[in-house]
Amino acid sequence: MEESFAEEHHIKVGDELPITDLYNYSGYDPLIVSAISNESSLFPFNSIVVDWSEEIADVLNVSEIFVGTDDVDVLQPIISKIPALHFTTKTAELKEDDQMFQQRYVLVIGTLIILIASASFGILQTLMNDILTQQTSYRITRLLGLTQNGMMSVIVWQAFIFVCYGVVFGLTFGIFFTKLLWFVIDPGSSTFIDSTAVLYTVGVLLVLTLICFILQGYKMSRHPLENTEDS
Length: 231
Hints:
By secondary structure, this protein is mostly helical.
């Protein structure tokens, strides 16, 4: 028995503890307190440890048992008494937990990659369509003296500034609402922002933006001016 529990209830070694189950049945033999200890590692969940030889052990509803030993052979008497028990080592359990974590991590990261890629594709496609609808205006600026490279630069900078604007506001509001959500759920916790992953994502989006709109700007700026009839 745990020392603090014994002191609280004025229990001493040799005392008998009556046993009553959930159905108020009290016909079990009383437990005799054989030892009182202040070793916290012996009482990770409860203040009383019951020996397997006690009568009450036959009717206990056991879900998990933690055995502090490196020798599996010492478990054989328990296995023979309760063959339905399944034993696993701490190393195997930690390995299984690590595998489960890796699987969940890959699933979450994979889902995020698909969502980010889909959103990026949609943004770039919308921008490209918007610029295509304004190709008549771009050609007019060419007629007014804008060079081919100047027109390409205008297209690229418009798209680049739009994406940067979206990235800055998206990160600002995303971080704010993420911290706000976690504060509401668990005020005592702290949130960790993976800045490396965020920077990589932003970098890839900006590079894709430059590539897409340099190609589109080059193609539109090289379009013959004689085809600027009403369109």
